[in-house]
Predict the structure.
Amino acid sequence: MSRSKGGLLERLAQLPPKSLRAFATDTRVPGIGLGLVLVLFPLLDPNKSHVNVAADAGTFILLALGLNIVVGFAGLLDLGYAAFFAIGSYAYAMLASGQFNIHIPFWFLLLTSAFTAAFFGVLLGAPTLRLRGDYLAIVTLGFGEIVPRVFKNASTFTGGVNGIVGLDQPSFPHVLGFPGYKFGFNPVPYYFLILAILLLSVVLISNLRDSRLGRAWMAIREDEVAAASNGINTVTTKLLAFAMGAAFSGFAGTYAASKLFIVSPDDFGFVVSVSILVMIVLGGMGNLRGVIVGAVLIFFIQRYLLIQLPGWIAALTANIPFLASVDVAGYVQRSNYLIFGLILVFTMLLRPQGLIPSAQRKIELELGTTEEAVADLRGSA
Amino acid sequence: MKFFVDQLVLGLTNGAIYALIALGYTLVYGIIELINFAHGDVFTVGGIIGLTLIGIFRLEHLSPALLVPAVILLFAATMTITGFLGVAIERLAYRPLRNAPRLAPLITAVGVSFVLEGILFMVKGANQISYPNLLPSGKIGGGAFEIGITNLIIIIIALVLMVGLHQFIQRTRIGRAMRATAQDRDAARLMGIDINRTIAITFFIGSALAAAGGIIFGFYYQSIVFDQGFEAGLFAFTAAVFGGIGNVIGASLGGFVIGLILTFVAGYWSGGLQWASVVVFSILILTLVFRPTGLLGMRVAER
C-alpha cells in the first residue's frame, strides 16, 4: 500500500516496459516459444513427410529419456534396451491385429505395454542386479540378442521373419455426439500424440529425478557402498530404475508399432540399443535437455544425413575422374557403425559429461568418484 | 555313433575357436576388470589381417613343401600385428579412463567395438568374404572314428597355444607380473612392477590369441564377415564366465564346453541352430545368477 505513491496513470505508464523487461528475462519464455513452434509446425508446414519424420524422432526421444533413467540416473549400463522396445511393439502387434484376431483398443494397450515391458525388466533385473555392475551390461546385451531371436523363431505366434502386418491404428471412439476419429496413415495426430506423451514424460521424469527415489539412484551411481550404508536398499532401487526404463521403452514400442503398421524382428537389433546409448552419451547422461538434444542430433544423422549425404557426394565426385572410381558415396553410406563408435569413444575421452552436461554428473566424470570427488560434490551442492 | 563322433569333433573345433577368444576376455578382465567389448571384433580383424597377408604373399599358390613354415609364419605375423592393435586400443581408449567411473571404460569399449566393426563394414561391406583353407584336408582313422585332418590340426594348434600361455603365465617373469597386477595393482606397483607395461602385454597376448582364432575360423569355415565377432565374442565371453572369469584354464575349458553345447544343440535338435544362441545366452545368465564365479573361478570381488 505504501508503495503506491503516484497516481493510477503514472503506474499504468510504468507497467508495459516493466512487464516487457520481465518478459525478456523470464527463463520460461524460450520454452514457451519452443512449445508454440512445436504445436504450430504441423499445422503450418504443408509437407506431411516432415511431420512424419518429427513423429519418428519423438519415438527416439522417448526411448532416450527412458534409457537415461537407467544409464544416466542410476549408472547401470543397459546394452539391450531395444529388447523392451521389441516387447512393447510385439505386445501391441499380437493383441491388436488380425494375427489372433484380437483387437484390444490402442489406448488401453499403450498403458499396459509399459507394465508388460516393466515386468520383463524386473524378470531380467531381479536376479542380475545383485551382480557386479559390468555383468549387467553383458547380461542385457545377451537379453537384447535373445528377444528378437525368440520373436523371429517362434513363428507360430509372431509371424517369424515376416513379422506381423496390419496392426490396428489408434482411433477416438464415437461417444456422446462427438464424431469418432481414425488416425489412419496421417502423421499429424501421431505427432500430437507423441508430443503430449513427451511433455508428460519430461514432467514425470524430472519430478522423479528430484524425488527421494531419484536422489537414491544418483547416490547409488556415485557410490553404491555409501548409498547402502545410508539405508538405501540398492537392489530394489536399481530394479525400479531398470523397470521404469523398460516401461518407457515398451511404451515407445507400442506407439511406434501402431504408427508403423507392421512389426519386424529385424528392427530391434544391437545397433538400435547402441544408437539410443549414443544419443544419451552425446547429449549428456543424466540431463534431460541434453538427452533430448542428443536424440534429435543422432536421429537427424541417421535418418537424414547418412541417407542424403551419399547421393550428394556421388553427384559431386561423378565428374572427378580419380574419385569417381573410388565409390566414396558407398563408403559414406556404410559409415554409420564407425560414426556411432567414434562418437562413443571421443565423447568418453574428451567430454564425458556430453554436450549439455548435468552439473552433478560433470563433476563426477571429471574427478572420478573417489572420496575427494564426493566431498567436492557436497561442497558445491 | 558316426554322427556323434562327427558332432563331437565339430564341437571341439568350434570350442577351440571360442576358447582362444575367451582367453583374451579372461586375461583382460582378470587384470583390469573391464569387459572388453571390442575383443570379439579384434578376432574378426585378426582373421582379415591373416587373409590380407595370404593375399599379399600369395600363400594359396605355394608349393606344399613350403606350406608348413609359411602357415607358421602367417600365424606369427598376424598375431603380432593384431597384438599391437590390441596394445594401441588399450593405450588410446582404455588407459586414459583407468581411474574414471566404471561406466566410462565400458561405454568406450562398446564404442571401440563399433569403430572396428565400422571400419571393416566400410572397407569390406556386408557380404561374406571367401577365405582359403591352407590346412591339409582329408580324413584319418576309419569307420565311425573318421576325423578330418583340418579339425585335428585346429584343435592341436589351440591346445599348443593354451599350454604355451599357461606356461608363460606360470613360469616367466612377465607372467608373474601379470598375476601380481591382477591380484593387487597397487601392491604390484610398490613391488616395482611396471603396471602400464604389464597391462599392455596382457592386451597384446589376448589380441594375438584372438587373431589366431580368427585365422582358424577363416580356414575352417572358408568365409569371414565383418560382424561375426559380435556373436562369437558373446559366446566366448559366456565361455570365460562359465569357466570362471580371470582363470586361464577355466576359459579354455569353458570354450570347449560352449562349443560342444552349441554343436550338439544344433545337431540333435532339428531347428536347433536357430535356438543355439538363445541356449548359450541362457547359460550365461544362469551361470551369472547361480554360480557367478564359474566352474573354476575363485576370486570375484564385489564392487
Notes: Chain A has one domain: 47-380. Confidence is low (pLDDT under 50) at residues 370-381 of chain A.
